[in-house]
Amino acid sequence: MRLANKAVGIVLGCLLPLLVAASDYTVKIYGTAKGAEGREVVWRADADPFSMRYVELDRCRIDEDGRFELQTDEVRDILPTYLVIDYYSTGLFVQVGHTYRLQMAEFDYHIDETCNAFIPSGQFPALQYVLCDTAGNPQKDGLNALIGQYSYWYSRMVEPNFERINIQGDTRPVSAFIRLADSLYGKLEDPYFKAYRDYTEADLKSFSGLASRKELYAQYIEGKPLNEHNPAQVAFLKSYYADYFQNNRFLPFAQVARILNREDFTDRQRLSCLADSMGLDYSLKSERLREWVLINACAEIWGDERIDAGKLQGMLQYLQQNTKFFTHAAALKNLMEAKEQADSRHYFTGIALLDSAGNTVMVDDLLEKDKFHYFVFVRAGYEQCPSCREEADLLNKLWQSAEAPVKAAVKIVFVNCDYPFAAYFHDAARRRYPWPYLHFNGNIDWIRTIDAARFPAFVLVDDKGNILDSGFNAPSKGLKARFEQMGRLKARKEQAESDPKE
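RESULT FIELD:
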């Protein structure tokens, strides 16, 4: 998205230098977030529909009065964005040239984080806010108000009936919601909201079976422009074309696998064969949509053991270099970078922890050459994690009795995940473990990424920071045997390296 927006800006800047001023693209957000004083608010947007990456539009520190100001010039039309404070977020649709004043509901982040920081993020309530006019009065019109009201009725009428609709095939809740939306919004002409509503309801019709695929295609896809900045349209298209390589009759998966795995094919030939076969599908007459579906389908099958990942990546790299749609080129770049990071599982680098003196300790500096690293994630508030102390005591006894080969092969690192530094400090001073014991320094995204927010958690890492095992045995479940195995592996490697080569 960032590349796409910059490219659009460059083109328009060249063609209309006298008509379009740079300030026309400025979007501003300012407001208050009481309770979040001193924290950062980050303004983001999704980078593309495929990679799960985002672009950062701006960020700032919330001042002592709870005020913040954000600004970007990377919006070119209407863009769905979200504001993030710690691990909470809220959505906001922004339009080029507009200024938004937000009054966020007061919230005690400090109390909440000590209790709920490690709840899976999907269970967090969204940050609540009120959009205000320049006088500070709530705005009751505009795109965000419309979508907010529409979403309210959706949650009231449809969400509680998902099981009833899906399992029992009862379409009445969907029909009732569409009739209500017609009565409330049928005369509104806002094109973005109309498209948002149309595609939300198209997805409901598809989900409930209220309309056939042919009817949905004719009404919502055929001849329609593709707006990747309308989340309702993207959600509908991803639903309509879900598992495309597995389910469509024009290109059976076995044929996809043969095309992608053929040794004698070039990347160009693989792409050409897939595109030609997809072109037989009546619903993919549009070249742009066909390519969009191809990228989405490749993202879905990436990692399938029946597909040669290297050949799939080579074909996508060729498409990235040759597509005529710059948004697709940017999305492919994001997708391949995200896949490369996920495949490497290289997450134990670039993270700053704290020692008991408050000094920064980089995770990279903890990794020792040719060693296995056994990271243990705990909390000092034992009422929240009663097994943390038990497992730590067992590990301490195991380590004291470990043989020299084990200690030469394994390095233990404890990471305390209590938000209050004082809780960690007192525990570190009391325990005095014979291994590094550090504070997680608020790196909640890192903890979630490596799946360590289930205390105590045990993660095995190599000397390059690659995760070898995130379901590693606890001290109470056979860890001694695993440690001894690591000792033998290191001894064999050293023996092999010391033997003269023939």
